[in-house]
Amino acid sequence: MRTFNILSLLPLAAVTLLATFVRASNVVTLTTENFDSIIGQGKPALVEFYASWCGHCKRLAPVWEELADAFSGAYQKDRVIIAKIDADIEKEMGQRYGIQGFPTLKWFTANDLKNPTDYNGGRELADLAAFVTENSGIRSNIKSAAPSAVKQLNAGTFERETVHSGKDVLIAFKAPWCGHCKSMTKPYEAVAQAFKSEPDCVVAEIPDSDSEFNRDLAAAQGVSSYPTIKFYPRDGSSPIPYSGARTEEAFVNFLNEHCGTHRTPSGGLLETAGRALPLDKLASEFFSTPSKADREAIMQRARDVASNLTVKAGSAPAYYLKAMERVLEKGEDWLKKETARFTKLADSSSLAPAKKDEITIKRNILASFVKRTFDEAAEAVKAAESVVGEATKSVHSVYDQATQAVKQEL
């Protein structure tokens, strides 16, 4: 009887099992021989020129595979190419396209082999996929996520978006391999979302500051470690290093101070938004004066003050005056009713952010007509306490004097 050795089949079984789990890559591998027959032949292509020893290339590799997978479905297949070529080995191709560093990413249109454009955006999957979709019209099969509110910059857009933008810009210089950079992604995104309604206060980043394309810019900006965060004022003055905590609250406080904004970490407005101290004082004086003639005189003073104010929320000065007019016409009850109405509207989830800001500012201004009366009451209480204190001291003094007199007589 022949014996059958099952152990002899194990190596073959292992190889078969391994093959089951190794799937073919959707990234097209290019060489000098096949490059011209694949690229520029009717399909657009995003090509990575890499070197096997390049650390940045190794970190990009899994993302590049995911990108190819994202455009390999039934709809996308054979309509756009995601490819790579080892330009360190295929030196002829590297020289043809002027490759200076690795990885270099180039976009080739469907029928143009000679004039590719450089890709200088972020190297996250979402950034790359968005670029391919924008330039090819082909959607990826990536499930859509909320777009980032963080503005993406690079060496090509830096000057335009800072020096010549007329805006305040907070920029995080980051590197893909940096652990601290990854840790701050969530709070930084939250801050960008909170400030997205502020057109002149921008939250931005250069995600690959250490890349060949951005390296000179980073050096010129004094970046020696990652992340480096700097605030670029709208007036073009020297950038201000950010050295605070990398938390939502710390970032928000910093931006409010330097942008002159009044945001909360959730994106709402503080009670100070839209307010102007000179008009607050007049609103308090107006509300505390029962005489109609006096109120009309105060309103005229408010007009003079408002005409000379530069307030970021342009409608704010006008609303102080409007509120004074309504109180003169409809009485003080109008303040309570309008405040209640605005409070109810501000709590509505269907309200557009810009409209919610407008309502919050108006409600803040109405508060200047009410809260100051409580301040005055508090001052009155404080004054009364002072009087009582002085009176108490006087009583004790008289008591002590009487006691001494009695002792002397005894």
Automatic annotation (TrEMBL):
<dbReference type="Pfam" id="PF07749">
    <property type="entry name" value="ERp29"/>
</dbReference>
<dbReference type="InterPro" id="IPR036249">
    <property type="entry name" value="Thioredoxin-like_sf"/>
</dbReference>
<feature type="signal peptide">
    <location>
        <begin position="1"/>
        <end position="24"/>
    </location>
</feature>
<comment type="similarity">
    <text>Belongs to the protein disulfide isomerase family.</text>
</comment>
<feature type="domain" description="Thioredoxin">
    <location>
        <begin position="6"/>
        <end position="137"/>
    </location>
</feature>
<dbReference type="InterPro" id="IPR005788">
    <property type="entry name" value="PDI_thioredoxin-like_dom"/>
</dbReference>
<dbReference type="GO" id="GO:0006457">
    <property type="term" value="P:protein folding"/>
</dbReference>
<feature type="domain" description="Thioredoxin">
    <location>
        <begin position="140"/>
        <end position="260"/>
    </location>
</feature>
<dbReference type="InterPro" id="IPR013766">
    <property type="entry name" value="Thioredoxin_domain"/>
</dbReference>
<keyword id="KW-0413">Isomerase</keyword>
<dbReference type="InterPro" id="IPR011679">
    <property type="entry name" value="ERp29_C"/>
</dbReference>
<keyword id="KW-0676">Redox-active center</keyword>
<keyword id="KW-1015">Disulfide bond</keyword>
<dbReference type="InterPro" id="IPR017937">
    <property type="entry name" value="Thioredoxin_CS"/>
</dbReference>
<dbReference type="GO" id="GO:0003756">
    <property type="term" value="F:protein disulfide isomerase activity"/>
</dbReference>
<dbReference type="Pfam" id="PF00085">
    <property type="entry name" value="Thioredoxin"/>
</dbReference>
<dbReference type="InterPro" id="IPR036356">
    <property type="entry name" value="ERp29_C_sf"/>
</dbReference>
<keyword id="KW-0732">Signal</keyword>
<protein>
    <recommendedName>
        <fullName>protein disulfide-isomerase</fullName>
        <ecNumber>5.3.4.1</ecNumber>
    </recommendedName>
</protein>
<keyword id="KW-0677">Repeat</keyword>
<dbReference type="GO" id="GO:0005783">
    <property type="term" value="C:endoplasmic reticulum"/>
</dbReference>
<dbReference type="InterPro" id="IPR051063">
    <property type="entry name" value="PDI"/>
</dbReference>
